[in-house]
Design brief:
The protein is α/β, with parallel strands linked by helices and 605 residues long. It is built from 18 helices and 25 strands. The model has no long low-confidence stretch (mean pLDDT 93). Bound molecules: 6-O-phosphono-alpha-D-glucopyranose. 6-O-phosphono-alpha-D-glucopyranose (G6P) binds next to helix 9.
């Protein structure tokens, strides 16, 4: 979603700002812009195309300056047109970039109109910049501190003023913002990744903080108005993550990175011990009687998969809920429940709000499964398990999903062990299965050429049905989500046993039916479901375990998975579905890494 970069330096800062925007492109955006102070005035360039277009513009107009702010915008208030692109100005004196949503923008706009301000955009952001302008008395830091007290909603902002060419001011409430500390230059960004290559020293601003960046350093005031010192953290941001290497898209690169991502994630696990989840986890795990798992999107499907493991391996009652539903419904809190939030980014607004809602209801035990150690969600939970997927750029999540599953499986086995549900031999076998995963994944990735052949056929379809059963029903859901988000083919997933309660009516030759067919206890039942589809002229595309004895036939296309994987089977079975979606999207020529209307990190509601 929206991204912010800001900088003050003794060199032309525009290339750093543009590079920062490039690094934030993966979050999803529909316009972008940059403003610098030059010759005592703010100057800007904005584009409703890509950052590359903005870069071409700034080169052409020779936009240069030592103080600047930049933005990628994902439209909420106001269409993605140039007038609504940030930076937004107030009376050619102040410039602002903003992430988030201001809920009381209407009364503020009326008040500011009454004071003579003219609004030229449809954004909620414009009220902030005029508000700051209206209270500015020669001190930008003071003006921002005063103005933000009147804002309701979520924001991260970066602001500059023509009369203070040596200052950039930032503030955050509900949206992330970090200050990056360089040598004689300082930065602001919504994501540390934006500053890879510029600094490795960061201050993660806290809720309500306002900060002032100058060449000499960073001053921070907290929500009570007191000057505070925040910890400076050393974070080696891996700049290489944004390099594509030999791959056509980041999604493809990230699919193929899964053996490495899982190797890194399991390297922390040599036995199933509560300490994997935090120093206090032993005490917390001994106190809990159930789990409540909250997440959005693909992370929600990893939660659904985990429910099967948690109930079968750990025998612990588990409830899974979409975060945006949970946060607004009346629910009955349970002080003996462990609230688990799953998020790749750790910044998804609904997941963070659901966590805070659970805490406000009295839930005391919280755990994050997350890919970003410094994220808001990890900072808000007592316990955490960090996946080591590395930065995920493609909007459609792949390696984050499979590493989340590793973390959740580890949680299930650890809880099972603590609850006396596991023999030493079983534990050793689970460790062995985890260690075998990277090799097993490599042999699944080898199936790519066969999947490309199927993708050619899929690219000519407009609908697809995905079937799975038990532990693999969430994998079918994830396969359908992948296909719809990047190829724009309408796809739905059903538990195969539900076929005759509705979806069978849709089955025709034109409707491919993708089936996940592991050799588990439900295989015979799944084979009956396959026959139900065949009998109605449906075309089946089955990913079958090596020993499942499902073979190519009329209307039945089979890709044989190399092995049968036991409890970890969902982690392997999702990979061909990722590849199928990816190659179908390529064949349809869509923008795979940045599908229309979607964002990587949904930091607004
Ligand atoms: C967006 C992304 C998805 C992701 C979901 C949840 O919709 O496009 O790929 O699964 O957000 O994000 P999170 O970072 O919380 O896992």
């Amino acid at each position: 979603m929206c991204g912010i970069v800001g900088a003050i330096a003794q060199r032309n800062i525009v290339p750093v700002l543009i590079e920062g925007l490039r690094r934030l492109e993966y979050r999803g955006y529909d316009s972008c812009g940059v403003a610098v102070l030059a010759g005592g005035e703010p100057h800007r360039a904005r584009s409703v195309a890509r950052v590359a277009d903005l870069d071409a513009q700034v080169r052409e107009i020779r936009l240069e300056g030592v103080t600047g702010i930049a933005h990628t915008r994902w439209a909420t208030h106001g269409a993605p047109v140039t007038d609504n692109a940030h930076p937004i100005f107030s009376r050619d004196a102040l410039a602002i970039v903003h992430n988030g949503i201001i809920e009381n923008y209407e009364p503020l706009r009326e008040m500011l109109r009454g004071s003579g301000y003219t609004f030229v955009s449809q954004t909620d952001t414009e009220v902030i910049v005029h508000l700051i302008h209206s209270v500015y008395r020669g001190d930008l830091f003071a003006a921002v501190r005063e103005a933000v007290t009147q804002l309701h909603g979520a924001y991260a902002i970066a602001v500059l003023h023509k009369d203070q060419p040596d200052t950039v001011v930032g503030a955050r409430q509900g949206s992330p913002l970090v200050a990056g500390l360089g040598e004689g230059e300082n930065f602001l960004a919504s994501d540390a990744l934006a500053l890879a290559g510029s600094t490795e020293h960061f201050i993660f601003l806290e809720e309500g903080d306002v900060c002032e960046l100058t060449l000499g350093g960073v001053r921070i005031v907290d929500r009570s108005g007191a000057f505070v010192t925040r910890e400076i953290r050393h974070v080696a941001v891996y700049g290489g993550a944004v390099e594509l290497g030999p791959y056509r898209h980041f999604m493809q690169k990230e699919i193929f990175e899964q053996p490495r991502a899982i190797t890194d994630t399991i390297s922390q696990i040599d036995r199933f011990d509560a300490s994997l989840f935090g120093a206090d986890a032993g005490r917390v795990f001994a106190d809990i009687e159930s789990l409540l798992v909250l997440a959005c999107g693909t992370s929600y499907y990893s939660a659904l998969t985990a429910k099967y493991w948690l109930e079968s391996v750990a025998k612990i009652p588990t409830q899974v809920e979409i975060a945006s539903e949970y946060r607004y419904r009346e629910s009955v809190p349970d002080s003996k429940a462990l609230v688990v939030v799953i998020s790749q980014s750790g910044e998804t607004a609904d997941t963070l709000a659901a966590l805070k809602h659970a805490q406000s209801l009295g839930h005391v035990h919280t755990l994050a499964v997350c890919n970003v150690a410094t994220s808001a969600i990890v900072r808000q939970t007592a316990l955490s398990f960090l996946t080591h997927a590395g930065t995920e750029i493609g909007v459609a999540s792949t390696k984050a999903f499979t590493t989340q599953l590793v973390g959740l499986f580890t949680l299930a086995v650890t809880l099972g062990k603590l609850r006396g549900r596991m023999s030493a031999a079983q534990e050793a076998d689970y460790i062995r299965q985890l260690r075998h995963l990277p090799a097993a994944l490599n042999s699944v990735l080898v199936l790519e050429p066969q999947i490309i052949a199927w993708a050619e056929e899929f690219s000519r379809k407009e609908h697809a049905l995905f079937l799975g059963r038990g532990l693999h029903y969430p994998i079918a859901l994830e396969g359908a989500l992948k296909l719809k988000e990047i190829s724009y083919i309408h796809a739905e997933a059903y538990p195969a046993g539900e076929l005759k309660h509705g979806p069978l009516a849709l089955v025709t030759e034109a409707m491919p039916v993708v089936t996940v067919a592991p050799n588990d206890t439900l295989l015979e039942k799944l084979k009956s479901n396959i026959q139900e589809v065949r009998a109605r002229g449906g075309q089946l595309y089955v990913f079958a375990d090596a020993d499942a004895h499902i073979v190519n036939d009329e209307g039945l296309h089979v890709i044989r998975m190399p092995e049968h994987y036991g409890a970890l089977s969902p982690i392997l079975h999702v990979v061909p579905l990722q590849l199928l979606a990816y190659h179908t999207a390529c064949a349809r020529g869509t923008d795979v890494d940045k599908p229309r209307n979607l964002a990587k990190s949904v930091t607004v509601e």
